[in-house]
Design a protein that fits this description.
- The chain has 317 residues and is of the alpha+beta class.
- 19% of the residues lie in helices and 21% in strands.
- The longest helix has 20 residues.
- It is globular and about 40 Å long.
- The structure holds the ligand Nc1nc2c(c(=O)[nH]1)N[C@H]1C(S)=C(S)[C@@H](COP(=O)(O)O)O[C@H]1N2 and molybdenum atom (MO).
């Protein structure tokens, strides 16, 4: 997700598919030093008991199956994109600074009646379930995660959008005192993402509150994030504080940084390369193995119909 132009010495031309991986390796090397410096991850040690912990593990919904092993939790939480806490993949200890209880979510825009709801109250109004989903980052790596959460449709129904609403717009918290990268004011903070209402109410769209049978680790976007597994990972916004309904298509964080590379739809398609690398295959996180990438990340049976007749749209970037 680096928007700077690649310099000639950084990567041999013939290896262009590996560009994001190249950047990532460099970031991991830098991050390793930082972790060693903090020694015992004091934030983890001091973490207060999570008031929603008793809701886990939730029953698995056996409808959603994987074609590959679950990514081990340690591989997942040591390789993350959470740019609010820095541009390396080693942000787990930095993310521990995020206070996630109490946490309030504001619901507004084109709804019958705007409201705010405490995260703890929200999870009590839904039934949590576990789903095994693949996740395909636009940087050409992927993982398989046991998420816990509830269908996004339940949140949309709670919000009671007006007939004029066409999009759901979500925002991440904004607090530069907690998230150091948010001091960089030339970035379009807070992180913003959006879906059409049809996408948000599709069976697959999942609001995530936990993973690996526990409340969500902070680095994965606690206490509440999105999972849209047929889209590139940047659509799956973390640590959501606002859900707004709008007539106007929102411009997301990455789209406003580099619209030629990151669009609104961002549906996975191996045949449409990113302007700087191929999307034909993906590195399976933690294994060093590669697999061919699938159209809609393998979820076409659920979502392909959403895009019928949208020929003028850039559906795959
Ligand atoms: N607020 C916020 N949400 C975010 C991001 C981010 O930097 N900030 N990164 C996105 C990207 S690019 C990916 S691949 C996934 C990564 O989720 P993970 O760290 O749980 O693997 O989160 C997405 N959601
Ligand atoms: Mo990503």
């Amino acid at each position: 997700m680096f928007v700077k132009k690649r310099r000639g010495w950084e990567l041999p031309e013939q290896d262009a598919t590996a560009e994001p991986l190249f950047f990532n390796r460099r970031a991991v090397m830098a991050g390793t030093g930082a972790i060693a410096g903090t020694a015992f991850l004091p934030g983890l040690a001091r973490a207060a008991a999570d008031p929603t912990a008793s809701l886990y593990p939730a029953a698995r919904n056996s409808h959603y199956t994987l074609d590959r092993p679950i990514t081990p939790e340690a591989d997942n939480t040591n390789y993350n994109n959470f740019y609010e806490f820095g541009f390396s993949k080693r942000v787990a200890s930095a993310a521990e600074a995020l206070p996630t209880h109490p946490w309030t979510i504001k619901v507004d825009g084109l709804v019958e009646k705007p409201f705010e709801i405490a995260f703890e109250d929200l999870v009590k109004r839904v039934t949590l379930e576990e789903r095994l989903y693949r996740h395909r980052c636009v940087e050409a790596w992927s993982m398989a995660v046991p998420w816990t959460g509830f269908p996004m449709r339940a949140l949309v129904e709670m919000a009671k959008p007006l007939g004029s609403a066409k999009y759901v717009v979500m925002k991440t918290f904004l607090d530069p005192k907690i998230a150091p990268a948010q001091k960089q004011t030339w970035y379009p903070w807070p992180y913003t993402e959006g879906l059409t209402i049809a996408e948000a109410t599709n069976d697959l769209a999942f609001i995530v509150t936990g993973a690996y049978g526990k409340p969500l680790p902070k680095v994965m976007g606690a206490p509440i994030r999105l999972a849209t597994p047929w889209k590139y990972g940047f659509k799956s916004i973390k640590s959501i504080v606002a859900v707004s309904f709008s007539e106007k298509r929102p411009v997301s964080y990455w789209e406003s940084l580099q619209s030629s590379e990151y669009g609104f739809w961002a549906n996975v398609n191996p045949e449409v390369p990113h302007p700087r690398w191929s999307q034909a295959r993906e590195e399976i996180l933690g294994t060093g193995d590669y697999r061919p990438t699938l159209i809609y990340n393998g979820y076409g049976e659920y979502v392909a119909d959403l895009y019928k007749g949208m020929d003028g749209e850039k559906l795959f970037m």
